[in-house]
Amino acid sequence: LGQGQESDRNIVTRSDSDLIDDSPINLIEKTITATNESETAALESIGDRVLDENKPRRTLSFDVLQTPASLYGKHYFFGDKVTAEYDGYSGNFIVDGTQIVVNSTGEQIRVRTRSV
Q1: Are residues 28 and 56 in contact, defined by beta-carbon separation less than 8 angstroms?
Q2: What's the pTM value of the predicted model, to 2 decimals?
């Protein structure tokens, strides 16, 4: 909603048809008041930014498994960039913490990552 009042108010509508087609749940309305803007292009830009800020984002959380082909301290280390993949999605992460526990039952390594 831009400058003006009632029927004289500059109103711009923005949408993302790809997201709406993905699911009827994606049809969500949000009203942004931008009464300091009078230009349609500026209102469209604000609308596009709000659409982008609110679109669904993929996230990936996981427990790092130690396998013979991928061992902490041998194949990757603290601070390394790593890639995780699941169901056609891949994400880049940094190894930012480890916990190594050694006891009578053996060694357990827990690796913490954060998204890049």
Answers
A1: no
A2: 0.55
Residue among 76, 83, 111 at smallest CA distance from 96: 111
Question: How far apart are alpha carbons 9 and 32 in whole angstroms?
Answer: 13
Do residues 38 and 10 lie in contact, with contact meaning Cβ atoms separated by under 8 Å? yes
Residues 13/59/18/10 CA torsion (nearest 10 deg): 10
Of 22, 21, 44, nearest to 34 by C-alpha is 44
Single-letter amino acid code for the residue at 50: V
3 state SS of 20? helix
CA distance 60 to 116: 12
- Condensed to tens digits (0 to 9), the pLDDT of residues 36-92 reads 998 999 999 999 999 999 888 888 888 999 999 999 999 999 999 999 999 989 999
Please name the residues in contact with 38: beta carbons below 8 A apart, sequence gap of 6 or more.
2, 3, 10
Rounded Cα distance, 88 and 26, in Å: 22
